[in-house]
Amino acid sequence: MEARFNLMANEIGGKLARRFAGIHTLLHHSSLPASTQELVALRASQINGCGPCVDMHTKEAAAAGETAVRLNLVAVWREATVFTEAERAALALAEEGTRLADAHEGVSDETWAQVRKHFDDEQISVLVALVGLINAANRMNVITKTPAGDYQAGMIASMTN
Question: Where does the record place the Carboxymuconolactone decarboxylase-like domain (predicted)?
């Protein structure tokens, strides 16, 4: 597969990529566990069919110690026994926040109550920002048909240096 357009091959696109990487780094250094962040980003990317983001977040999660079993079960997290209640709340938020057009109410009150139960205000801020950020990145990659497979763990962090 060949990309139809390299969004980052121009000055504005490069600046945009660095800003996205900077936000990613900011969120990554929050109190929300990195594993939860990677699971959320992976699930939204799966839903949106974003190969480069699935590639990136699978590899980043594995590099951070996430198990293959858990990574393989993210797509069916409701039926899996390997996720904590907090992770389930975050994954539900990721799904409902990603599928806004599919549900008249967006994020349900039940999901929001579970998020409030398991996360503090800072962590919720990170979750909400992460869902928005990953959905934006997914859409840009899908629009430009960016291919997947070449990502190496740590690449996103190197963009902010």
Answer: 17-96
Task: Write the single-letter amino acid at 16.
Answer: L
One-letter amino acid of 70: R
User: pLDDT, tens digit, for every residue of 10-59?
Assistant: 999 999 999 999 999 999 999 999 999 999 999 999 999 999 999 999 99
Find the helix or strand (DSSP H, E) in which 38 lies. Answer: helix 34-48
How does DSSP classify residue 161? Answer: -
Asked if residue 40 lies in contact with residue 91, where contact means CB atoms within 8 angstroms, the answer is: yes
pLDDT score of 25:
93
The residue extents of the domains of the chain are 11-158
11-158 belongs to CATH 3.20.20.210: no
